[in-house]
Amino acid sequence: FVVNTYVPNAGQKLERLTYRTQQWDEAMRKYLAKLKATGKHVVWCGDLNVAYEEIDIWNSKANKKSAGHTKEERDSFGLTLSQGWADVFRRRHPDTQQFTYWSARGNRSDNRGWRLDYFVCDEAFLPSCEDVITRDKVPGSDHVPVVLLIKK
Fold first, then answer.
1. What is the pLDDT of residues 102-113, one digit of tens each?
2. Of residues 6, 19, 41, 93, which has the active-site annotation?
3. Would residue 93 show up in a list of annotated catalytic residues for this protein?
4. N or C: which end of the chain has fewer CB within 10 A?
5. 31, 41, 93, 143: which is the annotated catalytic residue?
6. 41: annotated active-site residue
């Protein structure tokens, strides 16, 4: 299965943080578990709206209370990963700072970005995932394409 989602943003004032972490994320975990229970592999991708690790954002310290990098969002994503899921890019590139999103306010030229776009797969499928490539030279949007390479 391939599941592509736009995960709801918590909002500039974090007004949707509780909905995001306690309802949406929980419903997504249940849905992914249901798909995995069929015995087929699952890849979950898209704008997951979380810069999970400090390396996934240009200035983690200054953004701890920003939507996409709150403790609640990071903990929720960590809970998902702990249930048998792998962040393919981070597993293949544990020490690489690579962004997929830059604010439309001009932060791209300074590379002040966030990694918000992911490929997450079930742990059993991870060996089949060769790499995740970020097409960060592609212009036109605040997000850039992210490509999953799967072994033959």
1. 987 767 888 999
2. 6
3. no
4. C
5. 143
6. no
